[in-house]
Hints:
The complex is a heterodimer. By secondary structure, chain A is mainly alpha-helical. Chain A is 75% helix and 0% strand. Chain A is built from eleven helices and no strands. The C terminus of chain A is likely disordered. Chain B is of the alpha/beta class. Chain B contains eleven helices and 14 strands. In chain B, the strands form three sheets. Chain B has a six-stranded mixed β-sheet with strand order 6-7-8-3-9-10, with helices on both faces. Chain B has a four-stranded antiparallel β-sheet with strand order 2-1-4-5. At the A-B interface, α1, α4 and α11 of A face β1, α2 and α3 of B.
Amino acid sequence: MVARVQNFYLQAYLSYRGLFHWLTPFPYFSNVVLAPFLTLLNFILIGRFASVGDVDRFGIGMVVYAIVWIYVGGVTQSFSNDRSGGTLHLLFASPASRASAYFARGAGHFYNGPLTAVSTTLLAVLVIDLNAGDLNYLTYAVAIVAVSLGILTFSLLLGNFAALYHDWFLFSSIGYGGLLGLTGVIIPVDRLPRALEVIANGLPITHGLSALRGAFAGEPLASVASDLLLELAVAGAYALVGLAVFTFIDRAARQRGILAGGEE
Amino acid sequence: MTRNDSMIECRNLRRVFQRGGPLRRGSEIVAVGDISFDVRPGTIFGLLGPNGAGKTTTVRMLSTLLLPTEGSARVAGFDVASQPREVRRRTGLALGGDRGLFGRLTGEQNLQYFAAINHLSPREANHRAGELLDLVGLGERRRSKVFEYSRGMKQRLHLARALLTKPDVLFLDEPTAGLDPLGAFEFRQLVSELKERGRTILLTTHFMLEADELCDELIVIDRGVVVARGSPAAIKRQFGSATVVEVSLREPREGLQASLMALPQVQHVETGVEGMLQTVRVHIPSDQDAGSIVAHIGPEHVDHMTTRTSSLEEAYLTLIGRDQ
């Protein structure tokens, strides 16, 4: 058991180091700190100049969207680099546990989510006066972790498409756009058309963001527990669906010859 | 081990690829038509053939990366289609080229990663990585990033990766492609050493020298089917011209090639220029006298003459019908 955990950790660490190309200082700082803060700043400024009442609502939404930025981009590029670098088919030619290999590809990225959320929050509070006076730190921390898990498992699912298709940017764009437009980051979910509201409830962020807004309003953990549990349930569902897709790709690769080493 | 004590046993392997997507079926491409062979334990078995012959597809089926469309194959006693995990535990796969390694990781970290996905414990992985990096001559560069490695170093790292699990069978797919002559020579020495240590090796190559030097047995594949099989010497005997008479002429002779081809014992004639001299290379059966060729040309026109047995390359060119 200990060896399995160690192996999982090694896979996660080394695949992250080997496949995530934003790890050098400038791309990393840009994607984890700078770009999320500038995006948040834009939305806050638009809100202020357009005299929108509660501009902090956009700020809190953008704290969560910072996690989308780093996870979707990072995880999908890891899968894509795995395919184009010819290492994915060696994984499929090994006796590796597919579940372990799949989740290891996301695990290495995990810490980036809370890190970018916290740095974006701090900058928003310090530079543009995001109101965090009532912040419940425990609720904030748990909500950030829950939302991170949801977005990470969603990104892993998108990563499968990056493993399967050369032109995978479409899928990551759908991921970026869908999560921005449907999960309450900008538009409150209850103002969406009914059909979209149903979809929103099945997406990551929606429930966790509601808990996070509660944290900024000073609500204790217990009062947002149901939202957090729903967020974790969504995360679990994406984890299972994503693993099923990954296993399907493994089988399809053997049957149809995709990824058999000739992919560029 | 397979039922007849072969380490690899292929029976009528066939692989067809379907063009088009999941919704639209296109035409079929037969990558491997019908291939059967056996590989004895502790030997090096060669798959020879031009690009597109079906060598790599065969290796991919044997290494469980592809399912055969028809036929069966057993590796180390296990069926590649129904027992892929067992096959994977007993085989190592090294593909030629720059791909298949993490350029941003060190050589040592690459091996640690592949050890982890092959269920080696971290302690065992570290030990094996050190041992193998020394074996392939990368011990001093173990902590260099792989993108800093030369092509030859990457090839040696591929080999080290394939050896991590102490596999019974090694698949080497064009391992010296793109290497300089010295790198290729060193790599061949390494492969010979592995054979001495009892490994069974399946080698695909289109380098005749490599096949001649390394392989105990081989098959020549063309357009997905086996066109010859046997030891390199047997294939040379069977399909080579057996004797090649190389003659350098004192002065160019017009029409010589055509007149030599008209001789009944001559199989093939090539002409060329070496420095100031015209050269003629005449392929004849081994029971024929080279003197008859000199007599036909006229001894007074001959600067010098040598005879030799035909090379595997010449046999190969004869086999695949692409004489140059």
